[in-house]
Amino acid sequence: MSAYCVGKYLWPELVGKDGKYAVATIDRENPSVKAMIVLEGSVVTQDFRCDRVWVWVNAHGIVKRVPVIGKRSSWAGLSGKQGQVAKVTIKKENPYFDAIIVEEGFVVPLDYREDRVWIWVNKRGIVIKVPLIG
């Protein structure tokens, strides 16, 4: 947990659930934030805020991404960048995450952790997979 924001900050258990149910759950579990439904493909501000959670849903209203305080739960734009740049970017955008650089071929634990982001790099230190929470 970061010193920046208070309360629960991540809801992986809501992926696949109804968006309205997700908003109600988030609002109940962390009254310091406002959960807002966003349709996939919509444009949103990219600033980090402790009082906001985007609940990304598909056309059927089903949650498609892990709702998280701040900005995002995946970083597609970091593929092809230097691993250290990716790590700094992720930590700056969401200080909750433990961003870990891993060289391809290394073995990592298979458990899911909501505060961890694996940054997979090649031997030159270039990000080869989209960093995701897990």
From TrEMBL:
The keyword DNA-binding does not apply. The keyword DNA repair does not apply. Gene3D superfamilies: Trypsin Inhibitor V, subunit A (3.30.10.10). Keywords: Protease inhibitor, Serine protease inhibitor. SUPFAM superfamilies: CI-2 family of serine protease inhibitors. Pfam families: potato_inhibit (PF00280). GO terms for biological process: response to wounding. GO terms for molecular function: serine-type endopeptidase inhibitor activity. Belongs to the protease inhibitor I13 (potato type I serine protease inhibitor) family. This is Glu S.griseus protease inhibitor-like. It comes from Ziziphus jujuba var. spinosa.
